[in-house]
Amino acid sequence: MRVTANGFARLMNILKGIASSTCSGRIAVTLEGGYDLTALSESVRAVLLEMKDDNGWIDGEKCQNQENNDYKNIERGIDRIREILSSHWKCF
């Protein structure tokens, strides 16, 4: 995996939203190994700051907007691939 500290913070941001709507905001977190101690410490810090409050490590709304834009681009790419392959593969 090549998840950055920002990526781990965003994952926690998403999990907080899910936990808020499904289990009164409760989350259990475990730490599993790591070979790059610098990256590990940065990622742990990012996750803890994100858990601390809504003004944590990242701007969840900004990330969501960027992700929505990225998904649109990805969907266009997938549609184009389906179009190209449809003449060769009946399943498309």
Nutshell version of this structure?
This protein is mainly α and 92 residues long. The chain is built from three helices and no strands.
Could you characterize the architecture of this molecule?
- With 92 residues, the chain is an all-alpha fold.
- The chain has helices at 5-22, 37-52, 60-85.
- The chain has two domains: 1-58, no CATH class; 59-92.
- The protein contains three helices and no strands.
Mean pLDDT: 85
Largest sheet: none
Domain count: the total is 2
Shape: elongated
Secondary-structure class: mainly alpha
What is the H/E order? Answer: HHH
Approximately how much beta-strand content do the residues carry?
Answer: under 5%
Q: Separation of termini?
A: 30 Å
Assembly category: single chain
Helix residue percentage: 55-70%
Unreliable sequence segments: none
- Beta strands, count: 0
Radius of gyration: 18 Å
> Helical stretch count?
3
Topology:
Elements: H1 5-22, H2 37-52, H3 60-85
Question: Could you list some keywords that capture this structure?
Answer:
elongated, mainly alpha, 2 domains, 3 helices, 92 residues
